[in-house]
Amino acid sequence: MSTKQKRRCAMVDQSACVACGYCVKVCPKAAISIFKGVYAWVDDSLCIGCGKCQKVCPASVITVEVKEREEALV
Ligand code: SF4
Ligand code: SF4
Known about the structure:
The protein is built from 2 helices and 4 strands. It is mainly beta. It has one domain: 2-Layer Sandwich (Alpha-Beta Plaits). A hairpin with a 3-residue loop joins strand 2 (32-35) and strand 3 (39-42). The N and C termini lie close together (8 Å). Bound molecules: iron/sulfur cluster (SF4) (2 copies).
């Protein structure tokens, strides 16, 4: 059984990310990492959509969006 849940999550425009790592430093949930030193990658399961990464990104490539996802009921 599953249910649909709406939650906020950060999205990175990876083609424009300059891999500065500022977002990684401010994330309270350690949800962002720099993938292969090339671009930021958000772990959807950890991100709480707080928007801190979005505020510090010098390239303005992060947006926080509402996503709908299936959650398994345990
Ligand atoms: S929105 Fe908040 S929790 Fe999500 S990746 Fe950005 S700083 Fe981390
Ligand atoms: S702060 Fe912005 S430009 Fe810097 S690594 Fe994060 S997403 Fe990329």
